[in-house]
Design brief:
heterodimer, A: mainly alpha, Fumarate Reductase Cytochrome B subunit, two-stranded antiparallel ribbon, 9 helices, elongated, B: alpha/beta, Rossmann fold, Cytochrome-c3 Hydrogenase, Chain A, domain 2, two-stranded antiparallel sheet, globular, binds protoporphyrin IX containing FE, binds iron/sulfur cluster
């Protein structure tokens, strides 16, 4: 295989050259996740960690602070961190949606499920079998594998939208009846007239997203080790590299 | 029966209330409605010149706590004035007339003040068995309600019962007690929730409507904004302790004695829209939180059916055992976490014991 300088520099980046500048692994590599998607992914992950931790402590506050009330603002800071991270999450999510108009095909994946595609359903089955140790190896996928795709759409995309809507509805209660938050998200209280229910649902939503994060991080690490393609580095560099050249 | 042309002012003068008291009443009410000093003059003017708006007060399934609250309005003047204004027409619990004589008043008001009177409803109609669970004057209350609503200008839904259903509508609601706005669809309805609503809020609403002849500005749920646009939590005097993170952790602990925030004791102030933390109760003497107990959210939709009064969040009954959001979510997360650990272990075992495939040395 002829090694172009471009190939070499890419390969060097991935550390797959030997000392004589020979490419040892030059498995096909495809640019999957463009920079905005990657930046969004990590900013979003960070925001969600902050939201889940602070949200938990809003629901079950820390033990009482000693001394005078005027000396502390603990709950205030926790809530402030939650709301700030909430804004990061919401603005990030909006930008991520906008990016689907400019980005590549993969940038649209988490926003819909190709339920009309037979191969996609078959792919889910095969991935399930792979996770049940019934397949010797998984298929290779450029974007998300079908099972990951389902989890991302159902547990991440839908619930993040849900958390943003309920979050801003709750925020509008403090911001006041004339705030833009109330104008944009106040309709939530048409369906749930008692905001206690919105608190409860927002709280349950946190657990859905926590469950998603647990499965997601485990799957990312596991696939990084077990599958025939790179995972975590793909979300860092954007490049997907395949570890063999067999088909299927 | 008052003639159509008689003004409110003429009525109270006839009742022996002085002009001085009348002006005081206008000032006081304007202030309690959050209106400026000019409004007091406008109010006096309106009450002196405009024909009085009749009020019919009906009772469905209820406990009369709304009436009880109303007649204990802080300022005796307010109570007397407003009460005389109402009992002149019809309130079957406190008026002197009874039987056919009383029912005749309804008929008369309906004809004489078509489209002009206010229908104030305390309690709600049960709809099951054609409304037979609440018979009033020989008829199901629901029929009486619909009949009087036909020609009313607007309807006041008093309290949690008329606004949301309250305890008689608690699951499984055998009588199918139903809030007013689910029965009457074609009239403006103002909800004044609370169990009971605060007296000053009630008199304020009645005065506003009878004075200006229109409903005050309402929020999304149909409640008057002037009293229900903020939560107990937004104006609670314990709020600094909330922001500082100082909570009562158990009844009678040190924090309770120091008046810390009752959030951890299940205070529903953060989800309850009412005027308690500003207006307070019994003439501004106190309100539940000031007495050391959390708010139970008595003015909120479904407050009777959402689990313990000592939990901020709704109890989730769908799983058989009563649980809260953290128990359900935590359990699911725990199971998933354990499953992930088992799966990881199985993967490791598989990988170590399995034949090395070409992919591992790729
Ligand atoms: C240490 C933590 C994390 C790691 C290592 C990680 C890793 C990854 C990897 C490797 C992918 C690409 C998957 C593929 O190629 O099929 C990915 C995608 C994704 N991750 Fe994470 N992730 C982490 C945390 C999170 C968190 C906390 C969330 C949110 C709850 C999250 C949400 C997502 C989403 C929505 C995608 C799809 C991205 C897209 O297509 O736009 N990740 N992550
Ligand atoms: C994945 C995203 C999020 C998670 C996991 C999360 C989690 C939580 C949790 C667990 C609570 C406590 C609920 C309770 O027990 O009453 C909470 C409260 C709240 N969250 Fe979020 N949240 C998220 C997103 C947002 C967003 C986008 C906003 C919008 C700014 C937001 C605004 C709020 C507000 C206003 C409260 C109520 C605070 C209070 O009552 O003092 N949240 N959140
Ligand atoms: S006592 Fe209740 S209403 Fe008052 S600050 Fe605490 S949680 Fe809010
Ligand atoms: S403090 Fe809460 S429960 Fe008590 S009267 Fe006011 S709204 Fe009702």
């Amino acid at each position: 295989m002829s090694v172009t300088s471009d190939d070499r520099s890419r390969a060097v980046l991935r550390g797959v050259m030997d000392a004589d500048d020979h490419v040892i692994v030059s498995g096909p590599s495809i640019y999957v996740y463009e920079a905005p998607v990657r930046i969004w992914h990590w900013a979003n992950a960070l925001a969600i960690v902050v939201l889940a931790v602070t949200g938990y402590f809003i629901g079950s506050p820390l033990p009482s602070m000693p001394g005078e009330a005027s000396d502390h603002f603990l709950m205030g800071y926790i809530r402030f961190a939650h709301f700030s991270a909430g804004y990061v999450l919401a603005i990030g999510f909006l930008c991520r949606i906008l990016w689907t108009f400019f980005g590549n095909r993969h940038s649209r994946q988490i926003f819909y499920l190709p339920v009309w595609s037979g191969t996609w359903w078959a792919g889910i089955l095969r991935e399930l079998r792979w996770y049940m140790f019934l397949e010797k190896e998984p298929y290779k996928y450029v974007g998300h594998n079908p099972l990951a795709h389902v989890a991302m759409f159902l547990m991440f995309t839908l619930f993040t939208a849900f958390m943003i809507v309920t979050g801003f509805a709750l925020y509008s209660e403090g911001a006041g009846i004339d705030s833009w938050q109330a104008k944009l998200f106040g309709w939530v209280f048409t369906y749930f007239p008692n905001s206690q229910d919105v608190h409860t649902l927002h709280h349950l939503g946190m657990w859905v997203i926590v469950v998603f994060a647990v499965i997601h991080i485990y799957a990312a690490i596991r696939e990084d080790i077990m599958s025939r393609q790179t995972m975590i580095s793909t979300m860092i560099s954007g490049e997907r590299q395949f570890r063999d050249e067999r088909e299927g | 029966m008052a003639a159509a042309t008689e003004t409110f002012y003429e009525v109270i003068r006839r009742q022996g209330i002085t002009r001085r008291s009348f002006v005081k009443f206008c000032n006081l009410t304007a202030a309690s409605l959050g209106l400026g000093p000019i409004a007091a003059a406008e109010m006096a003017e309106a009450l002196e010149t405009k024909p009085r708006t009749p009020v019919i007060w009906m009772h469905g399934l209820e406990c009369t706590c709304c009436s009880e609250s109303f007649i204990r309005s802080a300022h005796p003047l307010v109570k007397d004035v407003v009460l005389s204004m109402i009992s002149l027409d019809y309130d079957d619990t406190i008026m002197a007339a009874a039987g056919h004589q009383a029912e005749a008043i309804l008929e008369e008001t309906k004809q004489k003040y078509k489209g002009q009177y206010i229908l104030a409803v305390e309690g709600n109609p049960p709809l099951n068995e054609d409304g037979m669970f609440c018979i009033d004057g020989g008829k199901p209350f629901v029929e009486k309600l619909k009949w009087m609503a036909e020609d009313a200008m607007a309807i006041i839904a008093w309290g949690a019962c008329a606004s949301w259903g309250c305890v008689q509508a608690a699951k499984p609601n055998p009588t199918q007690a139903t809030p007013i706005d689910k029965v009457i669809k074609n009239k403006p309805i103002i909800k004044v929730p609370g169990c009971p609503p605060i007296a000053e809020v009630m008199t304020g609403v009645v005065t506003y409507i009878t004075t200006f002849g229109r409903l005050p500005e309402l929020d999304r749920q149909g409640r008057p904004k002037m009293f229900y646009s903020q939560r107990i939590h937004d104006k609670c005097y314990r709020r600094p302790h909330f922001d500082a993170g100082q909570f009562v952790e158990s009844w009678d602990d040190d924090g309770a004695r120091k008046g810390y925030c009752l959030y951890k004791m299940g205070c529903k102030g953060p989800t309850t829209y009412n005027a308690c933390s500003t207006t307070r109760w019994n003439g501004g003497v106190s309100f539940p939180i000031q007495s050391g107990h959390g708010c139970i959210g008595c003015s909120e939709e479904g407050f009777w059916d959402k689990g313990s009064f000592y939990d901020r969040l709704t109890t989730i009954t769908q799983f058989g055992v009563e649980r809260n959001a953290d128990q359900v979510g935590g359990a699911v997360a725990g199971v998933v976490g354990a499953a992930v650990a088992v799966h990881a272990a199985a993967t490791a075992v598989k990988r170590l014991t399995g034949k090395p495939t070409e992919k591992t040395d790729a």
